Amino acid sequence: MTVTGPEVRRRKAWAPEADDERAYLARLLARRCWLSAGRDDDAIAAVRRHRAELGETFGRLGWALVVQRDFVRLRKSPPPRRTEFAADGPKPLTAAWYYCLVAGAETLPPRVAMSSLVSAARAAAAEAGVPSTGLIDERRAIIEALKMLDQRGVIEEVDGDVSTYLHVEEAHVLLAIHHTRLLEVVANFPPLDPIENPSGWLNAAERESDAARRMRRRLVDDTLIHADDLDEDESDWLRRRVRGDDGQPLAAAFGLRLERRSEGAAFVVPDGVWRHPHELGPFPFPVPGTVGQATLLTIDNILAAGRPHPERLGWRGLDYEDVLARLGELSLRFSTGKGGWAAEYATDLTHLADEIARLLTGLALLRLDDATWWLSPAAARWKPPATHGRRTPTTRETADEPHGGLA
Q1: CB 265 within 8 A of CB 276
Q2: What is the pTM of this model?
């Protein structure tokens, strides 16, 4: 007998295109935690369609997904390796005024002149003990902080350009303040005073007592996990659960695949998953250009000429002075002719070395210790570029690599 009617629960059909859309949204939200109406309408509508499944995926990481009619916010934990990610973030003065503007905005109406918001922010700065000078560097910081808030849809430009504040203190700029979104600025506020104990506050905001959740977050947020960095509980998770009911399904939810090797584990980007390098996060790699090519050649040099690490299996090190010397040899070879290295790097090897170090440390592939560059064994997966004709590998040729972080 066939039964019909509302009491029958129909099994939801599997739709591969829906899985692809959910994976794209998971990657998008892990990289961009704020979506607001007017600029992300299509993405917000898609998140609303897949709200339950996305909430379940992020719930396994301990992250809360806030979905409103005109606003989406993923409340993430701070990314791992605070120092490396902070190096690519806003300057301290910009960060300070970012929060002073948030504090000042709480006291103002939904539509307000920029001059009124800046005055309220200065009052909040005085209360918090943040010095206010009114000088040009402070104005630049306030403008950058307002742009950050505008990108998040928290305080938006309605009329005028905030950049005019650089030279005109009473700039005619109308701003919209979304007060409910101000509450979402700090995703995980621990029960400590950030002014009296800033380091303790940061540690509490980052702390996660569950080893499995820590490992899942690191696989999503970081390029790779090194096995020799783990404590006993984390190592146990990596041995027993990374391929089972924990790691593999999570990788699939983000449209990635799990790779497990002796040195650790990573979520790897299959070919065709992403269109542009910036979609991978703050440290896409490999990338074209001088820094990208010089980084690949530096990896090759360290792997070939570096000395073994005394404690970390497979890691190889090269002294900073040797790195500079080899960059000097490469710059002589690649700094002339069409397609040569950019002059700003070829004539300033220290600057080039700093950019290479910033990229590789951001990828968790390099550690600096007593003027020595220690390179992870995982860096061996990237082949050096073809040096004839000064050709740099294309994105397609270097696909199917660790994702470089989705934070």
Answers
A1: no
A2: 0.81
